[in-house]
Design a protein that fits this description.
CATH architecture of the largest domain: 2-Layer Sandwich
Order of helices and strands: HEEHEHEHEE
Structural class: alpha+beta
Number of helices: 4
Radius of gyration: 19 Å
CATH class of the largest domain: Alpha Beta
CATH topology of the largest domain: GMP Synthetase, Chain A, domain 3
Distance between the termini: 47 Å
Number of domains: 2
Number of strands: 6
Shape: elongated
Length: 178
């Protein structure tokens, strides 16, 4: 399902960013594009609204793995009341951070695949966002000898890469704290 009124949504995002940039005294510019053209860099993402930020304060957005950039994106998603399965419809990027992260995830997925093939043991990624988990799943979807699953809950969800026919020999024992 697409965003019902993309132009109105883009205007709301513009209002939000104008307030944040002004009141935060940030030296940032931004461009909001509705229905951006597909590009090779974004071949696994098809946002309906793309927000690109730039300027002298760009490094602030990208500190700690892009935490502030992701926070702005989350505020926009919440403001527009988009459901979790619709979060890929809005994309915030700064200094091509998103494309670089996508490439990093693709490489990590391939390294994990090789490790699983070499050891026949599952490989667990660190917790990551639903978007990033999706990229790992997509990166390995054509590997007939492997399968991927998301495990964990909430902010601790992560991807596990398994050999296709992997069956654990015994269930892991969970230790309880007395």
């Amino acid at each position: 399902m697409s965003i019902p009124d993309k132009i109105a949504a883009a205007k709301k995002i513009d209002e939000l960013l104008r307030e944040v940039v002004t009141h935060g005294a940030l030296r940032l510019k931004y461009r909001i594009t509705v229905d951006p053209p597909l590009s090779e860099e974004r071949d696994w993402e098809r946002p309906e609204i793309l927000v690109q930020l730039s300027g002298p304060d760009s490094p602030l957005l990208l500190e700690r793995g892009g935490e502030l950039l992701r926070s702005l994106e989350l505020l926009a998603l919440e403001m527009l009341r988009l459901q979790g399965n619709e979060h890929e419809k809005i994309c915030f990027d700064c200094m091509n951070h998103r494309a670089l992260r996508l490439e990093e995830l693709r490489i990590a997925a391939n390294v994990a695949a090789e490790r699983v093939r070499a050891t026949s043991a599952p490989y667990e990624f660190a917790p990551m966002s639903s978007r990033e988990r999706r990229i790992v799943h997509l990166a390995l979807r054509d590997q007939a000898d492997l399968r991927t699953e998301s495990e964990g809950e909430g902010l601790r969800r992560y991807v596990v890469v398994y050999p296709k026919d992997y069956k654990p020999s015994a269930r892991p024992v969970r230790k309880s704290i007395p």
